[in-house]
Design the sequence.
C-alpha cells in the first residue's frame, strides 16, 4: 500500500524513477540548464544541430532565388516581373483556354445533335444542362429569377403552362427571337387589346367579363354578371382565347381555364388586364448568344420541369 | 560546472559582459593562470552543433535477427504491394491496393471504399492508435525500434554502407583516410546504391495511387504526370537525406513521437535496461581479476563498450533511460554476446521495467512476492486491447453488412413547390443513386405516403407514375425528378413526410429516402 501512496506524492518527479547514477548525473547538472523549471522538470541548455542552421540559411537562399525568378517586389506603378516572366493572369488564361479545349468535344457534339436527341446522350445532356444553368444565371435571372419562378408579368418556367408552347423546339424559338421584340423580325407578336382605353367596352361590361373569366376555374364570382359577361366574351375574346377559354399557343393567347396566371386572377387585376391590355416583352437572344448557348439554355429551361 | 539557477543566470549574463571587457583590456596574462579554457563551458560552447557521425557496429543476435525479419517483411510488402493484382471485373481496377483519387475510390483486396465511407479509414486510424497505446504502454518504443520507416530505412542504408565500406573500424579508417581512387570509388558506389534505393522508394509510393504497370510504362517513356515525377524527386531527396545522412537526428530532433510516447509509458513499461546493481562497479577483465584476487567487490560489466559501439542512436545505455533510445535491442545482443564469451549469465542488459529495476536496487534477487511485476500487471493495457478489439469487431461487422446501394434526394429550395396548370403541386428533387457494386443494376423508384402522387422526370410520358432507372457498375447517377400531387389529394399541412423508395429489379436491395413534400399555405 505504501508503494501505491508514494505514486501520488505531490513532488514526485522522473528523478525518483531513475537509477542512482543517472539521478546523480542529472542532479549534478552535468549539462547546464536554461534555469527554467516546471514541476521539477528542467530544460537543458544544449546547442541546436548545425544542419538546422543550414536549413534556415538554405530557405533564405531559396527565398532570394524565388524573388529573382518570380514577381516579388511591389513598386509605385509596377512590380518586379522576375526572370521567368510568370504571371497569375497568364496562368488563368492558360487554364481557361485549356478548359475551352476540353469543352470543345462536347460543344462540337452539341452543335450537330438535334435538340430532341440530346437527352439520349446522358453525358452530353449533363454538359448542356449545366452550361445552360450558367448562361441562365448570367442572362435570364434578372426577369425570371434565380429559381426560374418569375414574378408578376414574368412567366414561371417551372410550371407546365406555356404561352407560346413548351416543346424544346418552341422554347428554342422563343429564346432565339423573343416575344414582341421589335428589333427581331422573326419575333412573335400577339396583342391583348386595351378594351377600355380603346373604347371597345364599357367599364361595367369589363367587370362582367372578368366575372365570367373567373368562373372558368371556379373562382368566386357573381353568377348574374358572369352570365352577361359570357355573351361579351363570345363576341370579343373567344376569337383568341377560344369558347372555353383554353387559349391558343399559336398566337400566344393564354389559357384562362387553368391555375396559372401571369398577372393574377383577382377581379381587379383582371379588370385592369382587360382595360389596358398586356404587352410583356421578351428579348431575342439569337443576336447576343451563339447557337450552342441557345441550345444549352433551351435544354436547361426544359429540364426545370415546365417542358412538355 | 555549477548549475546556472535563475539567480546564477544573471551572473552568467554579467560574466558575458565582463568577459568581453577583460578580453579587450587584458594585455598581460596572469602570471599563474594557465592558458586553458573549459571547451564545453557555457561561454565557449558552439551555438550550433555539427552532427557527430556514428559508426554502428554490426552485431549478431536475437534482436538483430528480429530486425532483419521485420525489415524484410515491411520493405517487401511496401515495394511489392502495388504490383499485387486482384480481379474485380472489367469495370474496376485490378490492383489489390489502390488509392484512386481520380475516381474517388479506395481499394484494399476485397474491400472497396467510397468517399462517403471514409469512416472506415478513420476506424483503421483509431485501431492503429489503440494498438500503438497498447504496444507503447507494455513494451515501450517497439514501434521506433522495429517498425518505423525511419528506423527500417536507416537500417537498410547502414547495411549497404557495411556491405560497401566494411565494418565499423573500416568505415572509421576510410573516413579519416585522404582521398584516393579507392575511397572515391567506394563512396560513388555507396551513394549510387543509396540513391537507387531512394528512387525505388519514391517509385513504389506513387504506384499506390495509380495502376502500377500503366504508370510504370508512362514513367519510363516520360509521359507520366508532373506530380508523379515531383513526388518521386521529393521521396528520393527525403529518403536519401533522412536514411543516409540525418539518421538518428530525425528521431531526436524532428520526430514528435518520442515525446508523445514518453507520456504513454509508465514505471511498468518495458524499456531496454542496464541492470546496474549487477553490472557495477564496472571494470575491465584485467582489473576484475585483480579485484577477485584482492577479495574486492566487482560487477558483471567489463566496460568493453560493445553496447556503445553497436548503438545506432549513439548513446550509452548504461546511463539509464534516455530520450534518444529507440529500444531496438542491439545493445542487448552485443552484451549477451560478450557475456557468452565470459561464460557469465546473459541479460546484463535486457528489456525490463523501471519498477523492477528500482526494486532490484534494494534486493537483486527479488521475485514476484517482493514486487517484481510485468506489463500485463497493468490494467490499462487490457482496456487498450479491449478497445482495439471492439473497434475492429465493429468495423468487420459493418463492412459485412453495409449497403452497396444508396439513394439521396436533395429538395429543390428555389422554388420549394410549383403549381401546375391543372392546379396540382409539384416538388422537384435532385436524386442521386449510388451503385457500389461491380455490375449494372436496374431500379424502380416510386413514392410512398402521398395519395395519388407520381414521380416523373422531364422525359416521362404522360400517365407514368414511377421511374425505371438503370445505373452503370460502380457509378453514381444523378438526375432531376418531380413529385406531383393532384389538387384533390393535396395534404392539409404545409409539410408532409413521405418516402422515396428505390427497389432493385431482379435483386433484393432497397433504399429509402425520407423526404418532405411542401405545399403553399393556401392552394388556390
Sequence:
Amino acid at each position: 500500500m505504501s508503494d501505491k501512496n508514494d505514486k501520488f506524492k505531490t513532488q514526485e518527479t522522473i528523478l525518483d524513477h531513475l537509477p542512482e547514477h543517472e539521478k546523480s548525473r542529472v542532479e549534478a547538472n552535468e549539462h547546464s540548464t536554461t534555469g527554467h523549471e516546471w514541476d521539477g522538470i528542467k530544460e537543458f541548455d544544449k546547442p541546436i544541430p548545425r544542419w538546422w542552421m543550414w536549413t534556415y540559411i538554405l530557405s533564405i537562399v531559396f527565398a532570394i532565388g524565388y524573388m529573382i525568378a518570380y514577381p516579388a517586389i511591389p513598386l509605385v506603378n509596377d512590380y518586379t516581373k522576375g526572370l521567368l516572366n510568370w504571371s497569375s493572369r497568364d496562368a488563368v488564361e492558360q487554364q481557361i483556354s485549356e478548359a475551352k479545349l476540353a469543352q470543345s468535344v462536347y460543344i462540337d457534339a452539341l452543335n450537330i445533335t438535334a435538340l430532341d436527341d440530346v437527352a439520349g446522350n446522358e453525358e452530353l445532356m449533363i454538359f448542356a444542362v449545366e452550361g445552360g444553368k450558367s448562361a441562365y444565371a448570367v442572362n435570364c435571372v434578372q426577369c425570371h429569377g434565380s429559381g426560374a419562378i418569375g414574378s408578376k408579368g414574368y412567366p414561371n418556367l417551372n410550371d407546365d403552362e406555356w404561352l407560346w408552347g413548351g416543346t424544346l423546339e418552341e422554347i428554342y424559338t422563343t429564346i432565339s427571337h423573343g416575344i414582341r421584340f421589335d428589333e427581331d423580325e422573326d419575333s412573335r407578336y400577339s396583342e391583348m387589346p386595351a378594351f377600355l382605353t380603346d373604347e371597345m367596352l364599357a367599364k361595367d361590361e369589363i367587370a362582367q367579363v372578368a366575372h365570367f373569366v373567373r368562373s372558368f376555374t371556379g373562382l368566386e364570382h357573381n353568377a348574374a354578371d358572369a352570365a352577361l359577361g359570357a355573351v361579351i366574351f363570345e363576341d370579343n375574346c373567344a376569337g383568341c382565347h377560344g369558347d372555353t377559354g383554353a387559349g391558343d399557343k399559336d398566337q400566344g393567347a393564354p389559357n384562362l381555364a387553368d391555375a396559372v396566371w401571369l398577372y393574377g386572377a383577382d377581379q381587379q387585376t383582371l379588370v385592369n388586364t382587360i382595360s389596358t391590355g398586356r404587352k410583356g416583352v421578351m428579348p431575342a437572344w439569337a443576336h447576343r448568344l451563339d447557337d450552342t448557348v441557345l441550345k444549352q439554355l433551351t435544354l436547361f429551361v426544359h429540364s426545370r420541369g415546365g417542358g412538355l | 560546472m555549477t548549475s546556472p539557477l535563475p539567480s546564477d543566470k544573471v551572473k552568467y549574463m554579467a560574466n558575458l559582459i565582463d568577459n568581453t571587457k577583460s578580453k579587450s583590456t587584458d594585455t598581460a596574462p596572469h602570471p599563474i593562470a594557465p592558458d586553458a579554457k573549459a571547451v564545453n563551458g557555457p561561454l565557449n560552447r558552439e551555438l550550433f552543433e555539427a552532427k557527430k557521425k556514428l559508426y554502428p557496429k554490426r552485431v549478431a543476435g536475437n534482436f538483430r535477427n528480429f530486425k532483419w525479419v521485420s525489415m524484410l517483411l515491411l520493405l517487401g510488402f511496401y515495394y511489392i504491394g502495388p504490383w499485387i493484382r486482384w480481379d474485380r471485373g472489367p469495370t474496376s481496377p485490378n490492383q489489390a491496393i489502390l488509392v484512386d483519387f481520380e475516381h474517388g475510390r479506395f481499394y484494399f483486396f476485397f474491400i472497396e471504399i467510397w468517399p462517403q465511407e471514409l469512416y472506415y479509414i478513420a476506424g483503421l486510424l483509431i485501431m492503429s492508435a489503440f494498438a500503438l497505446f497498447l504496444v507503447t504502454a507494455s513494451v515501450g518504443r517497439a514501434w521506433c525500434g522495429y517498425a518505423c520507416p525511419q528506423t527500417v530505412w536507416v537500417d537498410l542504408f547502414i547495411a549497404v554502407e557495411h556491405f560497401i565500406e566494411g565494418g565499423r573500424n573500416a568505415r572509421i579508417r576510410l573516413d579519416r583516410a585522404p582521398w584516393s581512387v579507392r575511397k572515391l570509388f567506394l563512396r560513388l558506389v555507396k551513394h549510387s546504391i543509396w540513391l537507387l534505393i531512394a528512387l525505388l522508394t519514391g517509385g513504389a509510393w506513387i504506384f499506390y495511387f495509380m495502376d502500377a504497370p500503366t504508370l510504370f510504362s508512362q514513367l519510363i517513356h516520360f509521359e507520366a504526370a508532373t506530380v508523379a515525377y515531383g513526388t518521386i524527386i521529393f521521396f528520393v531527396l527525403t529518403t536519401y537525406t533522412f536514411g543516409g545522412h540525418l539518421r538518428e537526428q530525425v528521431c531526436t530532433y524532428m520526430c514528435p513521437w518520442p515525446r508523445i510516447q514518453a507520456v504513454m509509458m509508465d514505471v511498468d513499461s518495458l524499456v531496454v535496461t542496464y541492470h546496474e546493481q549487477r553490472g557495477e562497479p564496472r571494470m575491465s577483465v584485467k582489473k576484475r581479476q585483480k579485484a577477485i584476487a584482492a577479495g574486492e567487490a566487482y560487477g558483471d560489466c567489463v566496460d568493453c563498450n560493445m553496447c556503445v559501439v553497436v548503438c545506432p542512436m549513439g548513446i550509452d545505455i548504461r546511463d539509464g533511460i534516455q530520450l534518444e533510445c529507440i529500444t531496438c535491442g542491439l545493445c542487448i545482443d552485443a552484451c549477451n554476446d560478450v557475456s557468452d564469451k565470459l561464460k557469465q549469465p546473459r541479460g546484463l542488459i535486457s528489456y525490463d521495467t523501471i519498477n523492477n529495476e528500482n526494486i532490484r536496487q534494494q534486493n537483486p534477487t527479488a521475485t514476484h512476492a517482493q514486487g517484481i511485476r510485468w506489463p500485463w500487471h497493468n490494467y490499462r493495457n487490457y482496456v487498450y486491447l479491449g478497445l482495439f478489439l471492439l473497434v475492429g469487431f465493429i468495423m468487420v461487422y459493418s463492412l459485412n453488412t453495409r449497403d452497396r446501394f444508396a439513394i439521396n434526394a436533395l429538395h429543390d429550395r428555389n422554388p420549394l413547390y410549383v403549381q401546375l396548370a391543372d392546379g396540382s403541386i409539384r416538388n422537384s428533387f435532385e436524386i442521386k443513386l449510388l451503385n457500389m457494386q461491380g455490375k449494372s443494376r436496374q431500379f424502380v423508384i416510386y413514392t410512398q405516403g402521398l395519395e395519388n402522387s407520381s414521380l416523373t422526370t422531364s422525359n416521362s410520358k404522360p400517365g407514368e407514375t414511377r421511374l425505371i432507372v438503370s445505373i452503370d457498375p460502380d457509378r453514381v447517377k444523378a438526375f432531376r425528378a418531380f413529385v406531383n400531387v393532384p389538387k384533390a389529394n393535396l395534404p392539409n399541412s404545409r409539410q408532409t413526410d413521405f418516402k422515396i423508395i428505390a427497389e432493385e429489379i431482379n435483386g433484393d436491395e432497397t433504399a429509402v429516402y425520407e423526404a418532405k413534400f411542401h405545399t403553399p399555405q393556401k392552394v388556390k
Summary: The radius of gyration of chain B is 35 Å. The longest helix of chain B spans residues 181-207.
